[in-house]
């Protein structure tokens, strides 16, 4: 796709899967100013008409591929008639000198926020990309119903799903997360990324911190969060901060803490069915056997 | 594990998954004369006592990891109480000069046979490794019931499952395959491996060709085989040869030919449930809701 052509989508590969199609796509992102990739699972029902869209935001180091390959979600997306969309986790190959230096910032670590600092702000606009640009692009090429969107994610992507979901009550009917980073501004692990992308003003960081945002946005959408208790990152994920913020603001939260599970896709695969059924309650209630 | 210590198993990593445990292991193989790796899924029921073992033999270029990561089989192994075992697809790092040169022979391409030719015969003994050494090793370390074994596989591993299953009616109660190589001695794609491992005597090749073996071994075990019709390797897989041999010998075969599916793990994941339920009929009939 050259020269730069926003609006055009190149199909990189497709695979038939559970009666639908897993596809990998690339397009020139106007918001990120570079090519971006995403994967999409079109359930069989999309041949009959527009289906709800459920976004999965992936964790650090992931691309648009990991979830489609490892989570086993297509089985349930096919059953429930949900279109799954997985964006890449950052812009890539932007020419920023230390873009690939560290796994907690730069490529693979976009943190689903809009960077305000040089050199990142030119390309690292993942918040606007996911919230604004990607849905419009999808609607141009696929039978998606943008009035029925849900969002979920894992780890850094769990943070992204919570932040994007909470800040956009008008856009996402349902939110869930697996082992999300719940309070990134309080963690030494995640703070370096926030400093690079957003500068040293803590007030700016709070726009991208689920625990802080829960105090600002009050609405009836319940949250489903799963957390493994053998997760090596547990101390930095801080689900207890999320639980406390939900308690203080009266937000409905189902926080399930599972012994023995770690941070891997084996954990995600074990619980993904529950997440798709959670979202289906709000996105396509008619497809569920029980309320 | 040094010095060479057959019988000892090193656990490389474990992950909790659907209430059981995915583990990756290494041991010094007496048969292959080098370290070998396998993965094992222990379903939750293994904590109560020995469970049937279902082997999955993987395709060209795979390791012991691909199936565990991509197929989503643990969901059903946990439900049915099946122990899943996935051996690596060949010896590795043996020092054979062109071991890593070509994807259709050498490392990642053991073809589940016992090589008789130099330099391969010293290490490439995958048939005896899978049939004889690995089960005994498993029984020493895990709660497995070797009286209840089944075998399945994909592509080169589908060939392996058919060959090993057919030749060992006393060891495997059930056999299935996904997109198996059904008649390798008739394919230009697979013949180079057979020539290197077994020399140029076609009679020796027939010991490892499912279509040929069906003429020799007659028993009541039914075969389940799935094949995608958009599989780019379809011409070399030759499911029609398998179908013809089964027809001629009165062997029960369910050959399901699926439009649109290709050769990938998206195909495997879409159909793996049916394979586990096929094997469970023979390995643990009490666990099935319907006969």
From TrEMBL, chains A, B:
Source organism per UniProt: Lyngbya confervoides BDU141951
Keyword Calcium attached: no
Gene this chain is encoded by: fghA
Gene3D superfamilies, per database record: alpha/beta hydrolase (3.40.50.1820)
GO MF entries: carboxylic ester hydrolase activity; S-formylglutathione hydrolase activity
Protein name in the entry: S-formylglutathione hydrolase
Catalytic activity line of the entry: S-formylglutathione + H2O = formate + glutathione + H(+)
UniProt keyword list: Hydrolase, Serine esterase
EC code: 3.1.2.12
Enzyme class at the top of the EC tree: hydrolase
InterPro entries named in the record: AB_hydrolase_fold (IPR029058), Esterase-like (IPR000801), S-formylglutathione_hydrol (IPR014186)
Cited function: Serine hydrolase involved in the detoxification of formaldehyde.
GO biological process, one term: formaldehyde metabolic process
Organismal lineage: Bacteria, Bacillati, Cyanobacteriota, Cyanophyceae, Oscillatoriophycideae
Domain of life: Bacteria
Active site location: 155, 231, 263
Family: Belongs to the esterase D family.
Alphabetical list of NCBIfam families matching this protein: fghA_ester_D
């Amino acid at each position: 796709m050259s020269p730069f052509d926003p609006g055009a989508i190149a199909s990189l590969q497709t695979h038939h899967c559970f009666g639908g199609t897993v596809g990998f796509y690339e397009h020139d992102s106007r918001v990120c100013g570079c090519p971006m990739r995403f994967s999409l699972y079109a359930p069989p029902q999309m041949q009959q008409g527009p289906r709800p869209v459920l976004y999965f935001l992936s964790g650090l180091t992931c691309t648009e591929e990991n979830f489609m390959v490892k989570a086993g979600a297509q089985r349930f997306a096919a059953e429930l008639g949900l279109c799954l969309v997985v964006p890449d986790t950052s812009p890539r190959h932007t020419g920023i000198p230390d873009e690939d230096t560290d796994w907690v910032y730069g490529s693979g670590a976009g943190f689903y926020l809009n960077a305000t600092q040089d050199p990142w702000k030119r390309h690292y606009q993942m918040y606007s990309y996911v919230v604004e640009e990607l849905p419009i692009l999808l609607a141009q090429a696929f039978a998606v119903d943008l009035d029925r969107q849900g969002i979920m994610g894992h780890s850094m992507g769990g943070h992204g799903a919570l932040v994007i979901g909470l800040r956009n009550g008008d856009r996402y009917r349902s939110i869930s997360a697996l082992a999300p980073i719940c309070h990134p501004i309080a963690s030494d692990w995640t703070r370096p990324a926030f400093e690079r992308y957003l500068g040293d003003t803590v007030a700016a960081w709070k726009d991208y911190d689920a625990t802080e945002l829960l105090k600002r946005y009050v609405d009836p959408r319940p949250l489903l969060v799963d957390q493994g208790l053998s997760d090596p990152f547990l101390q930095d994920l801080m689900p207890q901060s999320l639980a406390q913020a939900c308690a203080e603001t009266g937000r409905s939260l189902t926080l399930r803490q599972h012994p023995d599970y770690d941070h891997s896709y084996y954990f995600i695969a074990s619980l993904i069915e529950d997440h798709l059924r959670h979202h289906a309650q709000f996105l396509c209630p008619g497809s569920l056997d029980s309320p």
